[in-house]
Protein backbone atom coordinates (compact mmCIF):
# COMPACT_ATOMS: atom_id res chain seq x y z
CA UNK A 1 0.00 0.00 0.00
CA UNK A 2 1.37 3.38 -1.01
CA UNK A 3 1.72 5.94 1.76
CA UNK A 4 0.40 9.39 0.81
CA UNK A 5 2.63 11.41 3.14
CA UNK A 6 6.32 11.44 4.14
CA UNK A 7 6.01 8.91 6.97
CA UNK A 8 5.59 8.30 10.68
CA UNK A 9 8.01 9.34 13.41
CA UNK A 10 8.15 8.87 17.16
CA UNK A 11 7.68 11.84 19.46
CA UNK A 12 11.39 11.61 20.30
CA UNK A 13 12.38 11.73 16.62
CA UNK A 14 10.09 14.73 16.05
CA UNK A 15 11.60 16.59 19.03
CA UNK A 16 15.12 15.85 17.78
CA UNK A 17 14.42 17.25 14.31
CA UNK A 18 12.56 20.26 15.72
CA UNK A 19 15.64 20.90 17.87
CA UNK A 20 18.16 20.52 15.01
CA UNK A 21 16.31 21.96 12.00
CA UNK A 22 15.46 25.65 12.41
CA UNK A 23 12.88 25.40 9.60
CA UNK A 24 11.03 22.34 10.96
CA UNK A 25 7.50 23.10 12.17
CA UNK A 26 5.29 21.37 14.75
CA UNK A 27 1.64 21.52 13.71
CA UNK A 28 -0.86 20.46 16.37
CA UNK A 29 -4.18 19.60 14.67
CA UNK A 30 -6.33 18.85 17.73
CA UNK A 31 -9.44 20.90 18.58
CA UNK A 32 -9.48 24.21 20.44
CA UNK A 33 -10.93 22.58 23.61
CA UNK A 34 -8.05 20.06 23.53
CA UNK A 35 -5.52 22.91 23.29
CA UNK A 36 -7.23 24.70 26.18
CA UNK A 37 -7.91 21.82 28.56
CA UNK A 38 -5.39 19.06 27.79
CA UNK A 39 -2.28 21.16 27.09
CA UNK A 40 0.02 21.84 24.17
CA UNK A 41 3.62 21.02 23.27
CA UNK A 42 6.04 23.64 24.58
CA UNK A 43 8.79 24.47 22.11
CA UNK A 44 10.00 27.58 23.94
CA UNK A 45 13.33 25.89 24.80
CA UNK A 46 13.87 25.59 21.03
CA UNK A 47 12.92 29.21 20.35
CA UNK A 48 9.82 28.06 18.45
CA UNK A 49 6.06 28.07 18.81
CA UNK A 50 3.76 25.15 18.17
CA UNK A 51 1.37 25.99 15.34
CA UNK A 52 -2.17 25.24 16.55
CA UNK A 53 -4.65 24.56 13.75
CA UNK A 54 -7.61 22.20 14.19
CA UNK A 55 -8.08 19.54 11.50
CA UNK A 56 -11.68 19.12 12.65
CA UNK A 57 -13.98 21.83 14.00
CA UNK A 58 -15.48 21.25 17.45
CA UNK A 59 -18.26 20.39 18.32
CA UNK A 60 -19.56 19.01 15.00
CA UNK A 61 -16.10 17.58 14.22
CA UNK A 62 -16.36 18.23 10.49
CA UNK A 63 -13.08 18.61 8.62
CA UNK A 64 -11.89 22.21 8.74
CA UNK A 65 -12.56 23.46 5.17
CA UNK A 66 -9.88 26.16 5.53
CA UNK A 67 -7.17 23.86 6.88
CA UNK A 68 -4.74 23.85 3.93
CA UNK A 69 -5.36 27.53 3.11
CA UNK A 70 -4.63 28.44 6.75
CA UNK A 71 -1.37 26.46 6.72
CA UNK A 72 -0.34 28.56 3.72
CA UNK A 73 -1.43 31.76 5.51
CA UNK A 74 0.78 30.79 8.47
CA UNK A 75 3.70 31.12 6.05
CA UNK A 76 4.62 27.43 6.13
CA UNK A 77 6.40 26.66 2.88
CA UNK A 78 5.87 23.47 0.88
CA UNK A 79 9.48 22.32 1.32
CA UNK A 80 9.59 22.76 5.11
CA UNK A 81 9.41 19.66 7.30
CA UNK A 82 6.05 19.53 9.04
CA UNK A 83 5.63 17.32 12.11
CA UNK A 84 1.92 16.85 12.65
CA UNK A 85 0.43 15.95 16.03
CA UNK A 86 -3.07 15.10 17.24
CA UNK A 87 -4.31 13.24 20.32
CA UNK A 88 -3.34 9.73 19.28
CA UNK A 89 -1.97 9.84 15.72
CA UNK A 90 -5.15 9.43 13.63
CA UNK A 91 -6.27 12.96 12.66
CA UNK A 92 -2.64 13.86 12.05
CA UNK A 93 -2.42 11.19 9.32
CA UNK A 94 -5.45 12.71 7.58
CA UNK A 95 -3.92 16.18 7.84
CA UNK A 96 -0.58 14.92 6.48
CA UNK A 97 -2.31 13.29 3.51
CA UNK A 98 -4.32 16.45 2.76
CA UNK A 99 -1.24 18.70 2.91
CA UNK A 100 0.83 16.30 0.80
CA UNK A 101 -1.94 16.28 -1.83
CA UNK A 102 -1.63 20.08 -1.97
CA UNK A 103 2.13 20.10 -2.60
CA UNK A 104 3.67 19.88 0.85
CA UNK A 105 6.56 17.45 0.46
CA UNK A 106 7.68 16.66 4.03
CA UNK A 107 4.61 15.95 6.17
CA UNK A 108 5.31 13.55 9.02
CA UNK A 109 2.76 11.99 11.34
CA UNK A 110 3.83 11.84 14.98
CA UNK A 111 2.99 8.35 16.23
CA UNK A 112 0.81 8.15 19.35
CA UNK A 113 0.22 11.92 19.25
CA UNK A 114 0.06 14.14 22.31
CA UNK A 115 -1.72 11.74 24.68
CA UNK A 116 -1.32 8.30 23.14
CA UNK A 117 -3.58 5.33 23.83
CA UNK A 118 -5.54 4.87 27.02
CA UNK A 119 -4.00 2.79 29.81
CA UNK A 120 -5.79 -0.06 31.60
CA UNK A 121 -7.73 2.52 33.66
CA UNK A 122 -8.81 4.48 30.59
CA UNK A 123 -6.40 7.38 31.19
CA UNK A 124 -4.38 8.89 28.36
CA UNK A 125 -0.95 10.50 28.57
CA UNK A 126 0.73 7.68 30.49
CA UNK A 127 1.42 4.87 27.96
CA UNK A 128 2.86 6.59 24.88
CA UNK A 129 2.89 9.94 23.13
CA UNK A 130 4.29 13.42 23.79
CA UNK A 131 3.19 13.69 27.43
CA UNK A 132 4.23 10.16 28.39
CA UNK A 133 7.67 10.70 26.84
CA UNK A 134 8.26 13.65 29.17
CA UNK A 135 8.81 16.09 26.30
CA UNK A 136 8.02 19.69 27.32
CA UNK A 137 4.37 20.73 27.29
CA UNK A 138 2.22 23.28 29.07
CA UNK A 139 -1.37 24.10 29.97
CA UNK A 140 -2.70 27.19 28.24
From TrEMBL:
Residues 20-126 form the Rhodanese domain. InterPro entries: Rhodanese-like_dom (IPR001763), Rhodanese-like_dom_sf (IPR036873), STR4-like (IPR044240). The keyword Transferase applies. Keywords: Transferase. GO terms for molecular function: transferase activity. SUPFAM superfamilies: Rhodanese/Cell cycle control phosphatase. Pfam families: Rhodanese. It comes from the Bacteria. SMART domains: RHOD. PANTHER family: RHODANESE-LIKE DOMAIN-CONTAINING PROTEIN 4, CHLOROPLASTIC (PTHR47377:SF1). This is Sulfurtransferase.
Amino acid sequence: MEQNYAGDVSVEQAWEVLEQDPDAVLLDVRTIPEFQFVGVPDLSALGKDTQLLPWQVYPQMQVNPDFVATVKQLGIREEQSLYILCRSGVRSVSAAIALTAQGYKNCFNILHGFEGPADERGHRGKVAGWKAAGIPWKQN
